[in-house]
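Work Package 3 (structural annotation) set out to generate three-dimensional models for the target panel prioritized at the project kickoff. During this period the team completed the workflow that converts sequence records into discrete structure tokens, so that structures can be stored uniformly alongside our sequence database. As a representative example, we reproduce one entry of 226 residues exactly as it appears in the project archive.
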Amino acid sequence: MSRILLIEDDDSVRISLSKALGRYGHDVVSASTGEEGLQLCRDRSPELVVLDLMLPGMDGFEVCRRIRVTGTVPIVMLTARGDDIDVVGGLEAGADDYVVKPVEPRVIDARIRAVLRRGTPDQSGQASATFGDLVIDRAAMTVTQAGSEVALTPTELRLLLELSRSPGQVLSRQQLLESVWEHSYLGDSRLVDNGVQRLRSKIEADSAAPVFIQTVRGFGYRFGPV
């Protein structure tokens, strides 16, 4: 049973979605405001947060940013539109995935389970690997750089594992979308681009001149450390 925090101001949506996710086997605690949600996030330590972007007062973008200041808990955002502005804004704030309203419980349950799977141990059989000052321990699911642990969200960690599995090999956005996010629609490639951007900000000395994750224009990304 997964501990889920649902932050949603619409009473009918919050109640119905809480009940539906409960039927799918999740332990759900809910909040109707961003402030209440942040407090519950601190007190209850959920395994995943489902966050509506259009909250009154403190909106979901700010809630997401505040969670990301100190935490790596996965966040699935709810957006009333699939517009790039909302989706990209949420991803840049630190969300891992998104679902467009009206929400189908089976769809969000599938997204929740996919996100949570990203934090499970790597089964590739590969041990730890060292690339310069970056050490990736696939068994322990940890990453250290210059001797210090790098705090990665499950999505960022899974993305790094996929990219570093075959150094020098170019992976398309579609390949990464399917292997990391378990999406099949290429229109969601913004998930990949934003994921790479956030990962670079944590492991690259200069994310504008990346050493580890290189862009192959028009195709995808290559893990190519010096």
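The first strand starts at residue 3 and ends at 7.
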